[in-house]
Amino acid sequence: MRTLMLMTLLIGMVGCNSSTLSTCAECGTTVDQSNGENGAYCETCAVAQKESSTNSSGQAKANPTGGQDQPHYQGFLRDLAAAKSQAAKEGKSIMMLFTGSDWCPPCMALHEAVFTSEEFNSKIPEECVLLVLDSPRDQSSTTSEEKQQYKSMAAEFGVTGVPSIFLTDADGKPYHSQSGYGGNAANAWVSDLLAEVKPQKK
Question: Is the peptide bond before 125 cis (omega within 30 degrees of 0)?
Fold first, then answer.
């Protein structure tokens, strides 16, 4: 945790800004191009592009990177319709998280410091249905439905960077939003978010 939080502080940002984000020309995933090494491609597709030019068979050899440390967001739903249904049934808000789980340092720091904490998992699910909208660099475990859902929801909510969090009612109408992660301890982060949660009717 200290390593991730230190990384966040050293790179001098609390979120991955849209000014360095683009869409991979091959697979459509969100890409942080702040280093400019891979041009219009994500790292995975850039490797495939390079290897395809030297492969004697003429076919690209995929070599996915990342993923091995990709957070799984236990307790989070991944389908908006399911989140809406559960929120309506239980009379809760929805906490929507837009993230780049395996390439965005602040996203990874937030996950490790807050989302895996007892403080978060004992309090936030009592008030909110959790929904993660992830655009990882390693797309091997991401369904086509999840990719399309991220793209459409990010556009609808005007997401300009990750991590971004929205509190919505059971119909998905947002009433609070926040972006980035400044390194707050789990108890402070949870307390601040709970102060924004509005009571919902079943």
Answer: no
Residue of higher predicted confidence among 20 and 85: 85
Task: Read off the pLDDT of residues 117-154 as tens digits, 9 standing for 90 and up.
Answer: 999 999 999 999 999 999 999 988 889 999 999 999 99
Cβ–Cβ under 8 Å, residues 107 and 16: yes
Quickly count: other Cβ atoms within 10 Å of residue 188's Cβ. 12
Q: Is residue 75 pLDDT above 90, yes or no?
A: yes
**Choices 3.40.30.10, 3.30.420.40, 3.90.76.10, 3.55.40.20: CATH for 80-194:** 3.40.30.10
Q: What residues contact residue 57 under an 8 Å CB cut-off, 6+ apart?
A: none
